[in-house]
Fold:
Amino acid sequence: MVSEKTKNFLERMMGIDRRIIFIFIFVALSIPMFISIDMEIPTSPEVEMLFETMERLPDGAKVMVSLDYDPSSEPELQPMAETFFIYAQRRKFKVICIGLWPQGAIQAERARAVVEEVTGKEFEYGEDYINLGFQSGNELVIQRMGSSIPAMFPRDYFGRPIAEFPIMQGVTNFSNIDYVFNLSAGYPGTVEWVLFAADRFDATVGAGNTAVQAPMVYPYLGKQLKGLAGGMKGGAEFEILTDLPGRAVKYMVGQTFAHTVIVLFIIVANIAFFATRGDSKGGIR
Structure:
């Protein structure tokens, strides 16, 4: 039997103002901004596959990065782009960026600027890095690149002919690209890269996806898709494996605290509900 005092307390908990909950969530998410906390993040087989495929690439390999997302998905995918660019610098990869989404080329330039500031080392444009920009056409762009990349992207993001850049010398189609890394938030994205680049043209494709999209591409893992980093956790795992802890690892701490707060409120609310037998006076306002 619950005492009257305890019952009154539980009823107050049932009627807690949602703004108080929001304050707790805000505090939980803000903790990593002010306190450095080390948290063990175990790696999953799909992210390990992604990393191991990259590790097998030779130094100086030509890799294509397709940034198929917009700023709304930046918290999940931009840290992956930045980590990959730093990894590419370390391995001396020749990075060719494109976008099947209009904002993709902009996201590439933002990631490049961040990486150059963090590492203090600039990409030599046209030699180590090039941004071919956006082309409309969705999966038809991928299909056309299977025959001729220069025909699909005759000029770079800044309007200059790609033939004048050393990085594009000898690049005709996917047979001249050692690896494709797709960062995707939806359509067109990873599914299209798998169906057209990997299946039709035998390109080696790895991907980073938002947490919402990742389950849809799991069936392709293995033969068609060589690894997947899904959501913020996948991005954090990728940073751990590359030994480049960055924003995703930091964000995971805040996300973990926020999830813990939510679970605690759910537990307290259920205890209060059953202890007070679902008194109609309760409920979040």
About this structure: The chain has a mean pLDDT of 91. Residues 20 and 26 are 10 Å apart (CA to CA). The beta strands are 62-68, 94-99, 129-134, 179-184, 205-209, 228-230. The radius of gyration is 23 Å.
